[in-house]
Amino acid sequence: MSSPPLFTPIESLGRLSIQGIRTIGRGGVLAAGAVRALRKLEIWWPRLGEHLYAIGVASVPIALFIATFSGIVLALQASYTLTGGIPMYFVGTLVGKTMILELGPVLTGLALSGRVGASIAAELGTMRVTEQIDALEVLSYDPLAYLVVPRMLAGLIMFPIVVLMAITIGIAAGWLTALGTLDMTSPQFVKGITIFFDPFDVRFAIYKSLSFGLVVTGVGSFYGFTTSGGAEGVGVATTRAVVAGSMLILVLDAFWAKVLL
Amino acid sequence: MSIELRDVCKAFGSKEILRGFTLDVQEGKTLSIIGHSGAGKSVTLKHIVGLIRPDSGEVWVDGQNVAGLELDKLYELRRDVGYVFQFAALFDSMTIGENVAMGLRRIPGMYEDEIQVRVRESLSLVDLDGVEDRVPSELSGGMQKRAGLARAIATKPKYLLYDEPTTGLDPLTVTVINRLIVRMSEELGVTGIVVTHDMSSAYEISDEIAMLHEGRIRTRGTVDEIRNTEDRVLRAFIEGRPELLEGT
Question: In this predicted complex, what is the ipTM?
């Protein structure tokens, strides 16, 4: 017997809540399994290199592309905003602070959520529906050690490196823009960057990117691992990995800002 | 008893697949499990290697209760069990040689030279000499199945589980696969369980045949006993005549 219409939204909310709790629970089980699988060094160590390359090195072009244009736009918008007697060197301050604290880590994280998270979910999802993960288990490989651990470690190691490169290139792009189009000098721009520079800002960016690396690779692995239902299932898993990964990046961004700043 | 399932029940959501499933397989024999699509044949095989745990009941392999084993012990047990997947489940990012070597790399103390020798031997046993450097997508369906079989036998397992080994293959390749299965049993003394709905294959390769119906073994017997069965459900399945089921 169907429920009266009044209860339908409540029912939907309840169903969504249960589904959410179940997803968190299953994610926790996978995370705990991945931590346990860390001791199986002989399985994941030989595979770490290829994932460092796929997750880190291969992501550098897109990360730098985004950072370059973010730096340019930041410099232009800063010069547009800073009027009425505010010194121009504040353009450097704004570009530097924003790239280090926010745009470098977050834009790189979101771009990598699309590139890395989607690719992990699609690859593991395809392996799941074609029974390749079952085959790994039958051949006595812990699939978490073989598939998840090297990817998560690669994310943990490479995200901060890619983010630091993106920050550097973003600031450089802002600097060149300031020199070329805003009638600023290099000493002015450098003064703007250094006057409010705090080494903690860089540590803050590293903490954030470490957490983004774990989340993007972990979420991609989770949705890939729990894929069911053939090609359509792989598509659903990939979409969910990108959406959930991106949302978690923004939540973590706010979390770190509240906790560390 | 080498493999034994005792009163196994398994449901996925509200759908009961196995309902008190009991079966044993004698050492060195090949038993085929036949049954309709979705009857739970593959689920049964996955219970034997611990890929699926029963809701209730027990699965014993080599004197060990699979569901009660810790993960590391389970991985040890799996070294004695080869599994041939329905669609081969070859790792598509690896060459055939690397696929076959995967299980061997988990055997402690095995050197690379030995691994390569064993890879070539295993591929030769399934008549796939010289394909080590090719990737799965370069092989036909039948060759992929044989490569899957080579991967399963490379570790010289005591047990081989075959999930629909001849489905979707042409008659000649079916014959090749059937002969390979018989060879595994006769030459290597492997205990085999074959899940199939291909009756001609089942007759050719089996010492015994068991029919899985409504979550349980409905009938079990030698090839001759199954051929001459009076059981209407089994006759309907063997002869492909659903009208025999009317009134049951």
Answer: 0.91
Q: Taking CB atoms and an 8 Å limit, are B81 and A137 in contact across chains?
A: no
Could you give the CA distance from residue A57 to residue A159 in angstroms, rounded to a whole number? Answer: 10
Distance CA B161, CA A126 (A): 23
Report whether B55 contacts B10 (CB < 8 A): yes
- What pTM, to 2 d.p., does this model score? 0.89
Q: A134 to chain B: which residues are within 8 Å by CB?
A: 46, 51, 83, 85, 89
Mean pLDDT by 10 residues, chain B (248 residues): 90 93 92 92 95 95 92 91 94 96 93 95 91 95 91 93 89 88 88 92 94 93 92 89 74
Task: Give the integer Cα–Cα distance in Å for B218 and B240.
Answer: 17
- CA A14 – CA A8 distance, rounded (Å): 10
Please give the structure tokens belonging to residue A142.
Answer: 């812990």
